Automatic annotation (TrEMBL):
Pfam families: Beta-lactamase2. This is beta-lactamase. It catalyses: a beta-lactam + H2O = a substituted beta-amino acid. Residues 42-62 are annotated as: Disordered. It comes from Sphingorhabdus wooponensis. One of its GO terms (biological process) is response to antibiotic.
Length: 378
């Protein structure tokens, strides 16, 4: 059932076809950082060489006037909810079919992608498949020296066997569906490294989307560390991070948030998803393959996906950054919603930094996808 949410003070009221019920999902938002609610110029990084590789250039996204305007009711509701949500959040919504329009909040600013960037690694790999340079059944060897950090279910197999051989197709599935960092870094290495992904983004004219140096180097720098391969085993990364002085860690995190090396604008992301959906980035076979894989994403079931009504289709990729209490960073979800009549919408919600609880973050994302469906056809 479609719902419309309106803000009354710091409460949200939910209206549906079967009646009206109030829902106070934002009453705990007293930690809201007021200065972050209004757009402001991003400050320059406080120190040089904060990250292990030079940030790639990001050409300005070309200005494309919309054919029609987004529904005013949708824009008003989005504005109300966005202003009430604590922290720095970017949103972009784009209707792809039946009269293109795009709307959002902070849509042209750069936000940390975190694992959202696995999308671009997968597209780069499939572009190489389309060129005949890589095969889906090609096997990639992974050793202990290739292990990464944080979520990497493949690690146990590598440690148990010393090394394993995995097909490109299997790595694509593990990187996107399960957001496995080692699987993703193995694909990145196979593609030719970070510059190969950045070259794909530039060649396909995907605008303000950066690609960072890979999980190990980037996550270490965000934590105020330099990567050591021993951090890939067990809880050693967490133990090393816990030894970093709080001031050092906060300074490193602040530098990253001020100018994220893996930053992307919500608008650039939804335009890239629209190109993917229309078959403008990959061959028809590769387009079907990646959209099929993204339809099986297991992470973030209570983010955007939970607000998509029954009868709609949804494919997506999540991203989640590091937390330095009380601030969570890089809490993201991007995807394609397809209505029963075939109309497609690209959606991106990117929470650069927020003090909201996990249920509050999820509720905001659900509000966005639910409201898109509510205003479909209007």
């Amino acid at each position: 059932m479609a719902h419309i949410l309106k803000v009354r003070g710091n409460r949200i009221q939910s209206f549906g076809r079967k009646g009206m019920a109030s829902l106070a999902i934002l009453s705990l938002l007293s930690a809201c950082v007021a200065a972050e609610r209004a757009p402001s110029r991003t400050p320059a990084p406080a120190a040089k060489n904060a990250l292990p590789s030079q940030k790639p250039t990001t050409p300005a996204l070309p200005v494309r006037p919309s054919v029609v305007r987004a529904p005013v009711g949708l824009e008003n509701l989005l504005d109300d909810q966005w202003r009430a949500f604590p922290g720095r959040t970017g949103v972009a919504i784009m209707r792809i079919d039946g009269g293109e329009w795009i709307t959002g909040k902070r849509a042209d600013e750069l936000f940390p992608q975190q694992s959202v960037s696995k999308t671009w690694v997968a597209l780069t790999i499939l572009d190489l498949v389309d060129q005949g340079k890589i095969r889906l059944d090609q096997k990639i060897r992974i050793t202990r020296d290739d292990l990464a950090v944080f979520h990497q279910p493949i690690r146990d197999r590598v440690i148990a066997n010393g090394e394993i051989d995995v097909t490109v197709l299997s790595l694509l599935e593990q990187a996107i569906i399960g957001s496995d960092n080692t699987a993703n870094d193995s694909l990145l290495r196979t593609a030719g490294g970070p510059q190969a992904v950045q070259n794909f983004l530039l060649r396909k004219k995907l605008g303000a989307i950066r690609f960072g140096p890979g999980e190990r180097a980037m996550q270490s720098a965000i934590a105020g560390l330099e990567w050591r391969q021993e951090y890939a085993i067990g809880q050693r990364f967490y133990a090393a991070r816990a030894e970093v002085p709080l001031a050092t860690r906060k300074a490193a995190l602040d530098r990253y948030l001020a100018d994220p090396i893996d930053g992307a604008s919500p608008e650039a992301i939804v335009r890239a998803l629209a190109k993917l959906a229309k078959g403008e980035l990959l061959s028809p076979a590769s387009t079907r393959l990646i959209l099929g894989i993204m339809s099986r994403t297991s992470s973030g079931p209570n983010r955007l996906k939970a607000g998509v009504p029954a009868g709609w289709q949804f494919v997506h990729k999540t991203g989640t950054g590091q937390i330095l209490p009380p601030v969570a960073t890089g809490y993201n979800d991007i995807g394609l919603m397809t209505a029963p009549d075939g109309t497609r919408y690209a959606v991106a919600v990117m929470m650069g930094s927020t003090t909201a609880s996990i249920p509050q973050r999820m509720a905001f994302m659900q509000f966005v996808s639910r409201t898109v469906a509510t205003y479909h056809g209007q």
